[in-house]
Design goal:
Elements lengths: L4 H40 L2 H18 L2 H15 L3 H29 L2
Helix pairs in contact: 1-2, 1-4, 2-3, 3-4
């Protein structure tokens, strides 16, 4: 299970398709921007930028029930705090791969809840 559907069901019960669509669009935008920010931070050795990026992804992933993505972001945040650039970059790659899976599942979910 890539996405905990209970989190998406909770969003849906609060605001229907509209809220799910808004939250998942914000999630997509945030993760894409933060991955870019993390990669730029690695290139410029900006540890705090990297930590902020992973932390933001961790929070966003929790909001939509992407528990594995949330865990990967937490691990990346820890690697950034220890300043291990190669490991951080590997986490970014893993995040991007997991993110694609999350978005695929979210799209399937949205297709099933759309009225």
């Amino acid at each position: 299970m890539v996405v905990d559907k209970i989190a998406l069901d909770r969003l849906h019960s609060i605001g229907g398709d509209n809220l799910v669509n808004k939250m998942t669009a914000l999630f997509r935008e945030n993760v894409e921007n933060r991955c870019r920010e993390i990669s730029e931070g690695v290139e410029s050795s900006e540890t705090q930028q990297i930590i902020r990026g992973f932390h933001s992804i961790k929070s966003s992933a929790g909001n939509v029930g992407a528990t594995r993505l949330q865990k990967l972001a937490a691990e990346g945040e820890a690697e950034a705090e220890d300043w291990a650039p190669e490991k951080v970059q590997n986490h970014v790659q893993s995040l991007r791969e997991e993110f694609r899976k999350v978005m695929d599942e979210i799209e399937v979910y949205k297709g099933g809840t759309a009225k």
